[in-house]
Design a protein that fits this description.
The structure holds two protein chains of two kinds.
Chain A (H helix, E strand, L loop, with lengths): L6 H21 L2 H31 L9 H32 L2 H6 L5 H29 L11 H22 L3 H18 L15 H5 L2 H14 L5 H31 L1
Chain B lengths: L5 E10 L2 E11 L4 E5 L6 H8 L7 E6 L8 H5 L2 E4 L11 H11 L4 H14 L15 H13 L5 E5 L7 H16 L3 E6 L2 H7 L2 E6 L2 E6 L1 H8 L3 E6 L4 H10 L4 E4 L4 E5 L2 H10 L6 E6 L2 H9 L6
Parallel strand pairs in B: 3-7, 3-8, 5-6, 6-7
Antiparallel strand pairs in B: 1-2, 1-4, 8-9, 10-12, 10-13, 11-12
The chains are: A mainly alpha, B alpha/beta.
Chain lengths: 270, 308
């Protein structure tokens, strides 16, 4: 064996080696990633701020949104959703690719790196990607004068936490599924879309009929959105609910990551 | 064998109700080039994945450098170079980036890997391709790069699963040459193959596997000597007549195999046997005298050909 190989060192930092390899792969797509992460919020801020927002405020003023401008009301949700989709892209695709399309995980696992470290490495790199997207978004929110500089910076970690909770589950799901075509159809149409529409994104969850509200309760997007609104505008959420939201997201993250690391180990050892 | 690098006893792997590997035993010594020869589905790749400390076993014991790979996965893998059957390089990265990233998974220093890359590019004859994306390489180049990648950590044992499957003859010969150099440098090689010529070229010792079991073990020459005759006469009479003349032919040699397209006759002197057939006025459409090969050993042991 090469004298430079320090197995205990790899056991401590292996996940970071994987994360840095993932970031290197992502950097090959940096132009597209930057275009998406800048373009996407720009389109929303222009369409909603200038278009839909004006229409909503002409209709009912800001009475339905606790006195907050419409664009500002939905901004925390858009931010959290950006983190969610960013993390989803960087967990689901690399995982299916790693196990099935190009089998990169099997190459990584033929070194001292373990399945658990691969799972965590992929996840960490996805968090970095989401943090980048969210930071760009937040700077644009400041530039468009949607939020005020200050405590509203908490929107960023909150959005990443929301994305991280959802992404941990996606990491597990992508490692579990065998037939990705069906998975993409179900994920896009029956999970992402309803979650985006029914998580209090465009209107307060409480304005929906009670039987639809549970969609929001189980949605990481809703929990992250509510926390974000409280951080940015003093939305009037009780401390208890802040604790509930945080607990929900952290629990989801821990459970998702535990399931994912176990599933990575299992599938690699087959 | 004293102090084998690899020691396998009673190794069994069951998937559901299918037994892929069925109680096999073997040892591999340091510096040896050891082969698992058998047809597709014989259990070779499953055995390799267990040796590579990436797959679990159902029963039996395995020791690699004295350690159980299931218990000490990362530690055992630190000593191994693995070349899988299917190339799993990162096609989006360049040749040298692939080597670099893989080296980092072993926690090796940037400086060490940078130097090592130069050496490996030369070994794999890929110096001019260093900054080319892997997806643009030919099959033979990808294979050589995968082998080079497996060597980045200077492993004690290099595991190669079907190293030349899917390559054209020229690419195979280049690869054999590279592997032969490793063998000369004293790297311990363990390889699986279903090509008998590959096994004969590269292996000091091999086991013949079929249906998860080991049928025979020995050196290529030893196995041929033990299970086959010195020479083989291959005769063809046309697909319908092969069976017809078989009873008459069988009286002329020690052993005979009737395949759908040809008859194999095992003998110590192929030319003399052919003369005898001619005198009996049997007139084959084609005939060929050759030395016995591992293919014949496999046929003798299993009644089947390696590539079906």
């Amino acid at each position: 064996m090469n004298q430079g190989i320090d197995v205990p060192q790899i056991q401590r930092f292996g996940a970071l080696y994987i994360a840095s390899a993932r970031l290197k792969s992502m950097s090959k797509w940096r132009t597209i990633i930057a275009a998406v992460d800048i373009g996407n919020p720009l389109f929303y801020l222009i369409a909603v701020g200038i278009g839909i927002g004006v229409l909503v405020e002409q209709g009912s003023g800001t009475s339905g949104t606790n006195g907050i401008k419409y664009i500002a009301f939905i901004a925390p949700a858009l931010l959290a959703n950006t983190a969610i989709t960013g993390i989803m892209d960087e967990t689901v695709f690399p995982t299916i690719e790693g196990f099935k399309w190009r089998k990169l995980f099997f190459a990584q696992n033929s070194t001292p790196i373990t399945g658990r470290q691969i799972a965590i490495g992929v996840y960490l790199a996805a968090l970095v990607r989401a943090l980048f997207a969210v930071t760009v978004y937040y700077l644009l929110l400041l530039a468009f004068d949607v939020v005020n500089f200050g405590i509203s910076f908490l929107l960023m970690p909150i959005a990443v936490l929301g994305g991280g909770a959802f992404g941990a589950l996606m990491l597990f799901a992508a490692a579990k599924i065998e037939k990705e075509d069906q998975f993409f159809n179900i994920l896009g149409r029956l999970v992402i879309m309803p979650m985006f529409l029914f998580s209090g994104t465009f209107f307060p969850l409480s304005s929906m009929p009670i039987y639809l509200q549970p969609i929001g309760w189980i949605s990481p997007l809703w929990h992250a959105t509510e926390l974000g609104r409280e951080a940015a505008f003093d939305y009037g959420i009780s401390t208890t609910m802040v604790v509930v939201h945080l607990t929900f997201l952290i629990t989801l993250l821990v459970v998702g990551l535990t399931l994912a690391t176990r599933q990575f180990e299992r599938r690699l050892a087959k | 064998m004293s102090n084998p690098l690899i020691s396998v006893r009673g190794l069994t792997k069951v998937f559901g109700d299918f037994t892929a590997v069925n109680g096999i035993d073997f040892d591999v010594a340091k510096g040896e080039s050891f082969g698992l020869l058998g047809p597709n589905g014989a259990g070779k790749s499953t055995t390799m994945r267990i040796l590579a400390a990436t797959s679990t076993r159902t029963s039996g014991t395995v020791e690699i450098l004295g350690k159980d790979p299931e218990q000490f996965g990362p530690l055992v893998r630190a000593h191994l170079g693995v070349v899988p059957q299917q190339d799993n390089l990162d096609g989006e990265l360049t040749v040298s980036e692939n080597l670099y990233i893989y080296g980092r998974y072993f926690g090796l220093s940037k400086k060490f890997i940078k130097n090592k890359i130069e050496e490996l590019l030369e070994f794999a004859q890929l110096e001019e391709k260093r900054d080319v994306k892997v997806e643009a390489l030919s099959g033979g180049m990808k294979r050589r790069l995968t082998i080079a990648r497996g060597l980045v950590s200077e492993p004690d044992i290099l595991l190669l699963d079907e190293p030349t499957t899917g390559l054209d003859p020229q690419a195979r010969h280049i690869l054999w040459d590279r592997l032969f150099r490793l063998k000369e440098q004293g790297v311990t090689l363990v390889l699986t193959t279903h090509f008998m010529d590959e096994a004969e070229q590269l292996c000091d010792r091999l086991v013949v596997m079929d249906n998860g079991s080991i049928m025979a073990e020995g050196s290529p020459a030893g196995l041929i000597k033990q299970y086959s005759s010195k020479e083989v006469l291959e005769v063809r009479f046309g697909s319908d007549r092969n069976k017809e003349v078989a009873p008459q032919l069988s009286t002329m040699c020690e052993r005979m195999e009737t395949l759908p397209d040809r008859v194999l006759m095992y003998t110590e002197d192929g030319e003399a046997l052919l003369e005898q057939i001619m005198q009996a006025k049997l007139h084959p459409t084609t005939s060929l005298v050759r030395r016995s090969s591992l293919e014949d050993v496999f046929l003798r042991l299993t009644g089947r050909t390696l590539i079906e």
